Amino acid sequence: MAAADSASVSLATQDKEFNGKMMKYATGKSGDGEDVGLYYDPETKLLAGYELLDTETMLGDVNAQYILSDYKAVDGIKIPHHIKIRKGGEDYSEVQYASIAVNDAKAEAAFAIPADLAASATAAASAPDYFPMTLKKAANGVYQAVAFRHHSMVVEFPTYVVVVEAPYLETQSRALANAIAVQFPKKPIKYVAVTHFHYDHIGGVREMAALGATILVEKRHEPALRKLLDAAHTHPKDDLEAMRQAKKNVGTIETYDGKKVVKDGNQSVELYAFSGSPHVEPMVLAYVPSGRVLFQSDLWFPGTGGTGNPAAAQLLDSIKKLNLRVDIMVGGHGLIGPFAELTKAIAAMK
Fold it and tell me: Which of 141, 175, 276, 323 is placed for a possible disulfide with 131 were both Cys, Cβ 3.0 to 4.6 Å?
């Protein structure tokens, strides 16, 4: 609305194609000063859509178009009931509203916060970076960083910390970094290992790079991770973008081929890429020999008593081929569980 108001004096100055039809085009400013392109249908005189620069968590800065149609009157106001979004020239999402009501009391009740969650909601609303994060011990010097559903493994070394998986969100990675700073004072996060390139397991990698961590990436995952880390994030800036613009040092990608070992003193983390998983190609697992702890994401949910599946069976086969002696499983999903839980579930499949 702010953009339309600021552009009102120039609505008829340009003709420009939009969604396959010639429209009246004008430019305006949003309430926070962002440039917005506005397209008006010359026949209906209604806003056919608008375009602006969006910053996506994974894609970075992309040109986005919001296409508005199916206008219907609601309390005397014409409101679009169909919205299609295109980003980077490709379809992104589409919504069709069956009905729209203004200030519907039933809708307000549907969004009411349950009484037993009121305290948590207040804490979340008042904190700048609210995200639950708990470090649970799996073995000496090895912890699962438990969040909502996407977890990490933290391994303590004599002078630094290694994190396996920086999943999901910038906020989650900040919460993880804060928990590590409390648990391991004066030990920076030196390395962050990636298990695979699915967005829900690499969404926090940019934040870890902003903190100065080296991102350990199997060479076949490099294109996806390189694209993620190199992307501009300006609307709004994330921490990595801000650090780069300030010319400060940030973490970079370090690739390896098949296997990587991080070792210092009596502690080590071994990263193994293995092929043949039905989930993604390749997958990476992390093994800590000192505690016989193995971390993986998506293939098996430890500590949940789950049943076996083809991905879990292939994981077990890969562990055997690598000749790893595993006692404890830690999951990117799930909890901490004994290795016997996995073998029992796979045996039940046969």
Answer: 175
Neighbours of 341 (CB within 10 A): 18
Residues 6+ apart with CB under 8 A from 281: 220, 275
The DSSP letter of residue 307 is P
What is the dotted CATH code of the domain comprising 127-349?
3.60.15.10
Q: In residues, how long is the chain?
A: 350
> In 10 A of CB 191, how many CB atoms?
22
How many other C-beta atoms can be found within 10 angstroms of the C-beta atom of residue 222? 17
Order of strands across the sheet that contains 35-40: 14-18, 21-29, 35-40, 47-56, 60-74, 77-87, 90-96
Q: Structure pTM?
A: 0.85
Report which residue type is found at 94: E
Alpha helices in the chain, H assignment, sequence order: 2-7, 105-110, 118-126, 170-183, 205-210, 222-230, 239-245, 310-321, 339-349
CA atoms of 209 and 82, how far apart (whole Å): 39
Residue 224 has which token pair? 């996806």
Q: In this structure, are strands 328-331 and 134-139 parallel, antiparallel, or unpaired?
A: unpaired
Q: What is the pLDDT of residues 165-202, one digit of tens each?
A: 998 889 999 999 999 999 999 999 999 999 999 999 99
In the 8-state DSSP scheme, what is residue 213? -
Q: Where do the structural domains in the chain lie, given as residue ranges? A: 2-107, 127-349
